[in-house]
Design brief:
With 178 residues, the protein is of the alpha/beta class. Helix 1 (18-29) packs across helix 8 (159-169) and helix 3 (56-75) runs parallel beside helix 4 (89-96). It has a 5-stranded parallel beta sheet with strand order 2-3-1-4-5, with helices on both faces. Helices cover 45% and strands 15% of the residues. It is globular, with a radius of gyration of 15 Å. It comes from Pseudarthrobacter siccitolerans. It holds the Pfam family AAA_33.
Length: 178
């Protein structure tokens, strides 16, 4: 089945490597790329900067903006790569309503590894103290999501290996992945 556009949502908790993988996929595929963090209203950024976890009422308008962006890109015939925590299945259901095919690439790994990565980051508003709340909120991909083509990927593997795995598993056109 051909889709007018494909949206690869690189998801997972903070520090799982979403930005690294999304940037590499965008380069390989030549697709538009966006960071979900760019869609957060200032009030959400302030909450997270102060160590306050976001609640659903904080996230719904943010997720709607992301879905709107994906649909706008699809209307222009563009496939996309997007980073978004997409921690709950209900969030992913909303994002899946964007025009085009929406697939989730769940980057998962050990909490210790993710915590180490967060400690080494500079200039990000998400403090490592919020990792436990993200892990508690995370709902892994369902069997139905996996059956629809979404992937679960182990972050202990090198980013280059993960990108190759994604491109092969999703059978993305070789001419786009050159």
């Amino acid at each position: 089945m051909q889709y007018p556009a494909t949206h690869l949502v690189v998801m997972g908790v903070a520090g799982s490597g979403k930005s690294t993988i999304a940037a590499a996929l965008s380069r390989q595929l030549g697709w538009a790329c966006a960071e979900a963090d760019e869609f957060h209203p200032q009030a959400n950024i302030q909450k997270m900067s102060q160590g306050t976890p976001l609640q659903d009422e904080d996230r719904w308008p943010w997720l709607q903006e992301i879905q709107n962006w994906m649909t706008a890109q699809a209307h222009e015939g563009k496939s996309t790569v997007l980073t978004c925590s997409a921690l709950k299945q209900s969030y992913r259901q909303l994002l899946s309503q964007a025009e085009g095919r929406v697939l989730f690439l769940h980057l998962h790994g050990e909490a210790d590894l993710i915590g180490q990565r967060m400690q080494g980051r500079e200039g990000h508003f998400m403090p490592p103290t919020l990792l436990p709340s993200q892990l508690a909120t995370l709902e892994p991909l369902s069997d139905a999501e996996l059956a629809a083509g979404s992937l679960r990927l182990d972050i202990s593997k090198a980013p280059e290996e993960l990108v190759k795995t994604i491109i092969a598993a999703l059978r993305l056109p070789a001419d786009q992945a050159s």
